[in-house]
Write a structure and sequence with these properties.
Elements: H1 2-10, H2 30-36, E1 46-56, H3 59-65, E2 77-87, E3 92-101, H4 104-118, E4 127-128, E5 137-144, E6 151-159, E7 162-170, H5 180-198
Antiparallel strand pairs: 1-2, 2-3, 3-7, 4-5, 5-6, 6-7
Helix pairs in contact: 2-5
Length: 207
């Protein structure tokens, strides 16, 4: 699962409509990926529980991030990053994940492979919902994946040479904190920051 991969660092419907950004498909550096991940300043009403961290792809992370035969979906990947937050009221957690590729084509070819895997994490009865026109392609699902029926969401977006995920879980304290709207907000801020990095700017989008 994506969360398992994120812990290593801590130690809808799809479409082809592009967003309104003018970003170029450039391979991002390790530092650019780290800055793309939302930090405490970008996450109003959330507290960091795993700081933004980026690592170079190696055998360990290939197995964790792309646990598919022959690590399908990670071909030509360069870096992996994640950060995790908890709501101030402890009612939800949110994790941001990024895989950076060496080309737009590599990210495009990996998209469906990884969505077919990660998209199942919200349970068999999960439903898709729309994220709106963010990135070059996007998908989202909401469902329940815990014993008490707390909702969870997962989104996946492609922005240039990166694939982006947001994963949110509600706690039993307040099941209404994880919704389609909250998932859109998380996915949008991550996509905007990735677009800013693609443009060569310092990511500054906030929630």
């Amino acid at each position: 699962m994506a969360i398992a991969a994120a812990l290593l660092l801590a130690g809808c419907g799809g479409g082809t409509q592009i967003d309104t950004g003018n970003g170029k498909a450039v391979a991002l550096t390790k530092e650019q990926i780290r800055k793309t991940l939302p930090d405490g300043a970008a996450m109003t009403d959330w507290k960091a529980s795993a700081r933004p961290t980026t690592v170079k792809m190696n055998k360990l992370y290939l197995s964790a991030v792309c646990p598919i035969k022959d690590n399908a979906g990670c071909e030509n990947s360069r870096f992996y990053g994640s950060s995790t937050f908890r709501r101030d009221d402890s009612a939800a957690t949110a994790t941001f994940l990024i895989i950076a590729y060496d080309s737009e084509q590599a990210a495009r070819e990996a998209y469906d492979v990884l969505w077919n895997y990660y998209g199942k994490s919200t349970g068999q009865r999960a439903r898709t919902f729309s994220l709106g026109p963010i990135g070059e392609k996007r998908d989202a699902r909401i469902g329940t994946s815990s014993f008490h029926g707390e909702p969870s969401t997962i989104t996946q977006t492609r922005v240039g040479t990166t694939l982006l995920w947001t994963i949110a879980y509600a706690t039993d304290k307040d099941k209404n904190t994880v919704t389609e709207d909250s998932a859109r907000a998380l996915a949008t801020v991550l996509a905007k920051r990735a677009r800013q990095a693609q443009n060569g700017d310092t990511p500054s989008a906030t929630l």
